[in-house]
Amino acid sequence: MDASQSKLAMYVVPTQFGKTFACIQTIKRSSADTLHVVFTMNTLIGKDQFTSRVVREISEAYGEDAVCCVASKKSGVCRRRFKNTEELSRELLASMFDMAPKIRVVVMCSHGKRFQEAPEFIGDVMKMMSKVSPDSRMKLQMYFDEIHHYANERNPGGRRVRALIEGACDSELVDKVYGYTATPNAVWGQGIWESIEMDNVNYNDENYVGISDLNWVKCQASSHPAEFAAMVYDEHPRVFGHMARVFVPGYRERDSHYAIRDTLQEKDPEIVVVVLNGENKRVYYYENPEDCEYEPKSAELIPEGMEEVCDTIARVLTNLNLLERPIVWTGNICVSMGQTLAHETVGSFTSVLINTHAMDASALYQLLGRATGRYLGWGIDLYPTVYSPIEVKNVCEELESAAKKLAQDFSGKEVTQDMYSSWCPTAYPQKKTKIRENTAEPIIKKFYGIEGEKEGKQWFKDNLKEKCGGNGPSRTKMGKYVEGFYVRPLGKGADRKYVLSTEKLYSHRKWNLDPKEGTPGVVSGHKYTWFPCYEDVNDSSTLQWWLIYYGE
């Protein structure tokens, strides 16, 4: 493992197991000259939840001003706020010369603007360090909550986050980079991501209720979550009985959340519905059942002081005297990964309705994970019952088992994606691939100069179209990635969009054609590949076009 790779570590435990607590303990154990930068979930609920917890913990030792947040909107959970990292850098410089209270922890949302600002911020901090004596210089530690989502190359901005982390690991200023997740599959990749160290976990499942503890009732999925909720209500009316606590997530579309609300309150006006989404965080209820022909009343969930969203929900429900009613929570993004919804005053969920298993395995486990947590200490001995297709049970139990295995058996050890995915064959099945008997060297047909693109397309039409089908090589736009050069991305590494040399392309000539390593005869199914490359990557006049394919 090289020096930059050794700086990256993942903390993997089951959902609602205590990742935030572990992050805070890491911060508290560090030396006083360390600046901690934490990227939380990209929701106000997620940011405020983490910030309120860290402020409570850190302020005991270093004062409330030791924690600050970078956010465009004001929040009651953090007194010290900056609108951008430029403001933060100025305050940080002042604090280094005792002209402002010392900053220990910076909390930011995980959205594109913050990730774009972060490299410049690290550069600013390095410049500041050059202005102080060596014994006064700070070190930096970075923390990425739900790293599987924000550093996922398939998600918008995922490559930018990976580049940020790679740059941080190369920086002399940065001591360590931590990623926190219950579902790490999407984190692995090339370079420093190939083999990742698991952070040390002090595994303790006291009072924890996990996926394997839940009760299950097999149901057929419906075309819409509101229809599914209606079906469960009709077939299992006790699910929504007196003092029931039911989690009914919808789709990402907000209309599905309101459809669930309307459907269930039409069934029973006694039901209280908590809606949490990007535009609306409210409790909907009828004071009197006979009022159900009108719109329900609602109360906005506005946090007070250091409240987390679960605290706010509990306070509002208590003040409205609704705790004796059946209560339903719905939403999607705001009720998924990283969010704690259950509260001791209100009680844990009694039932969970998951309409479909046809979604990403990680997202499915994260969603159902809202029913897990350390709530046995509340004096509760009734485990929630899940109503869902049976595939949900199989996937989620498998992912929870893999998270436990990493936490219990691999602390301080390196783990690869192949190791992890082998424990999750249902959640992450191996892709079926075609078998090609001929695994000989591919043929490379070369064309030269700018006109070579047209010549290659015509040659394909005359010689390969009948065999390969399709319209042949697609047009490549000059300057899309590098000004003055033709580039088509090759591979999955950080350099995939660099100008491609003939030497590198030759070494990757079987990419997407050749057998996968360790699996003789298995190919990707591509019948040909087409790349521009250069004899000299600094000289655009050395342009070549390579059409690579297997012969008969």
Please give a structural write-up.
- By secondary structure, this protein is an alpha/beta fold.
- It has 3 domains: 18-181, 3-Layer(aba) Sandwich (Rossmann fold); 211-399, 3-Layer(aba) Sandwich (Rossmann fold); 434-549, no CATH class.
- 31% of the residues lie in helices and 18% in strands.
- It is built from 15 helices and 22 strands.
- It has helices at residues 19-29, 44-62, 85-96, 112-129, 147-150, 158-170, 225-235, 254-267, 309-319, 361-368, 390-409, 417-422, 452-463, 465-468, 502-507; strands spanning 8-12, 34-40, 67-70, 81-82, 105-109, 139-145, 174-181, 195-198, 215-218, 245-247, 272-276, 281-285, 297-300, 327-331, 351-353, 385-388, 414-416, 434-435, 443-448, 522-523, 528-534, 543-549.
- β15, α10 (361-368) and β16 form a beta-alpha-beta unit.
- α1 (19-29) packs parallel to α2 and α3 (85-96) runs parallel beside α4.
- The longest helix is centred in the last third of the chain and has 20 residues, at 390-409.
- It is globular and about 80 Å long.
- The two termini are 42 Å apart.
Topology:
Blueprint lengths: L7 E5 L6 H11 L4 E7 L3 H19 L4 E4 L10 E2 L2 H12 L8 E5 L2 H18 L9 E7 L1 H4 L7 H13 L3 E8 L13 E4 L16 E4 L6 H11 L9 E3 L6 H14 L4 E5 L4 E5 L11 E4 L8 H11 L7 E5 L19 E3 L7 H8 L16 E4 L1 H20 L4 E3 H6 L11 E2 L7 E6 L3 H12 L1 H4 L33 H6 L14 E2 L4 E7 L8 E7 L3
Parallel strand pairs: 1-7, 1-8, 2-5, 2-6, 3-4, 3-5, 6-7, 9-16, 10-14, 10-15, 11-14, 15-16
Antiparallel strand pairs: 8-17, 11-12, 12-13, 18-20, 19-22, 21-22
Helix pairs in contact: 1-2, 3-4, 4-6, 7-8, 10-11
